[in-house]
């Protein structure tokens, strides 16, 4: 029987501010803690059975499943975004922060405009939904795409999918990635943000988002793939790692699509060992950034209902790890990620009980499992 492992990253599901959170303006942030304190009906029996409640100091009604262990992970990398979190989980630690700014330098924007043949609107820090209300109509009138960033190391370009064209937007983002790399501007991700709608009241982002990431140094994924393990990315995993170390990729539109894909892949019996590495993004993109606690709690309970049914399919020789990449406390000020520790829930009879304390310990544990 070939080995199979599954890592699910619950995007932004943090469990309390990190020791250095004050340096990021995130003292007191606690995504899960605050949700449990203030959402009376929040109930996660699946995650509870893997030890989450004990980890959070919440009284548990059930004993954790046999062969399950729960840990609290601390990030070492300089940052609190998707890229740094996922990369460090797979053993690539970022010592120097990625490039961030209030607005991209004039020389970069001018060269990009010359390269792609269009001017840009915006060029400032903005919420993705708010900037569509502010500049969406002007974009539709002029045809100029909208350029913006956030507290994270991202360059985001929004354009109307019908009027501007999805392929044109994706091509511009690819060229922006190439230019950033050529100018040695270490921006973590260039994100294409296509949207639809007729006016500021109806503009909405579509599921055709695409990330063009920096290429990481060698990670656990590279080594697994080189040693014959099938590395399957679900959701935006391949984008996050710029395709490095990925054997096959299955992008998804939302959490539901990710969970369905995981289940489909798990039911297969490949001829080689396989790691399925999945990101479920709705917690972060739909509810954390939009500071919607009720939606965040409902999203957690939707995942947990799926998990309860899935756990019975995890067999004695399998490895399941459920973790996160950063926090995004919907009760915290602002709309950005929060520097938090994250839960790491492990279910396996085939690995030792040594403590997992750092993000990078996850990758080491996976390598050890595959031998």
Class of the largest domain, according to the CATH hierarchy? Alpha Beta
Q: Major sheet: size, sense and barrel closure?
A: 7 strands, mixed
Beta strands, count? 13
Poorly predicted regions are none
Strand content: 15-25%
Summed over residues and divided by their number, the pLDDT gives a mean of 96
Helix content: 25-40%
**Fourth-level CATH superfamily of the largest domain:** Alkaline Phosphatase, subunit A
Describe this structure in words.
The structure is a single chain. With 371 residues, this protein is an alpha/beta fold. It has two domains: 4-96 and 215-370, Alkaline Phosphatase, subunit A, CATH 3.40.720; 106-213, Alpha-Beta Plaits, CATH 3.30.70.1250. It has 13 helices and 13 strands. The chain has a seven-stranded mixed beta sheet with strand order 2-13-12-1-11-9-10, sandwiched between helices. Helix 7 links the parallel strand 5 and strand 6. The longest helix is centred in the middle third of the chain and has 22 residues, at 161-182. The chain starts with a strand and ends with a helix.
């Amino acid at each position: 029987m070939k080995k199979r492992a599954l890592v699910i990253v619950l995007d932004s599901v943090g469990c309390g501010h990190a020791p250095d959170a004050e340096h990021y303006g995130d003292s007191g942030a606690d995504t899960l803690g605050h949700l449990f304190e203030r959402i009376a009906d929040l109930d996660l029996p699946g995650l509870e059975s893997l030890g989450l409640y004990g980890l959070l100091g919440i009284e548990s009604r059930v004993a954790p499943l046999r062969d399950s262990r729960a840990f609290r992970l601390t990030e070492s990398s300089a940052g609190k975004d998707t890229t740094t979190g996922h990369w460090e989980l797979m053993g690539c630690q970022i010592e120097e922060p990625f490039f961030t700014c209030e607005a991209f330098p004039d020389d970069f924007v001018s060269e990009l405009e010359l390269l792609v043949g269009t001017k840009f609107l915006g060029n400032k820090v903005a919420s993705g939904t708010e900037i569509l209300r502010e500049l969406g109509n002007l974009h539709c009138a002029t045809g100029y795409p909208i350029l913006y960033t956030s507290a994270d190391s991202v360059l985001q370009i929004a354009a109307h999918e019908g009027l501007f064209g999805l392929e044109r937007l994706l091509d511009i983002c690819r060229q922006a990635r190439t230019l950033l790399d050529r100018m040695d501007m270490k921006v973590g991700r260039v994100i294409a943000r296509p949207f639809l709608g007729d006016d500021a009241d109806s503009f909405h982002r579509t599921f055709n988002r695409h990330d063009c990431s920096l290429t990481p140094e060698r990670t656990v994924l590279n080594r697994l793939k080189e040693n014959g393990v099938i590395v399957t990315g679900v959701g935006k995993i391949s984008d996050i790692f710029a395709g490095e170390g990925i054997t096959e990729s299955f992008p998804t539109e939302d959490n539901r699509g990710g969970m369905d894909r995981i289940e489909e892949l798990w039911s297969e019996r490949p001829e080689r060992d396989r790691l399925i590495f999945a990101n479920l993004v709705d917690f972060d993109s739909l509810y954390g950034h939009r500071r919607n606690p009720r939606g965040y709690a409902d999203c957690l309970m939707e995942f947990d209902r799926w998990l309860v049914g899935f756990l019975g399919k995890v067999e004695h020789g399998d490895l399941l790890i459920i973790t996160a990449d950063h926090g995004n406390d919907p009760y915290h000020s602002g709309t950005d990620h929060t520097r938090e520790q994250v839960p790491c829930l492990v279910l396996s009879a085939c690995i030792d009980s040594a403590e997992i304390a750092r993000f990078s310990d996850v990758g080491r544990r996976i390598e050890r499992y595959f031998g």
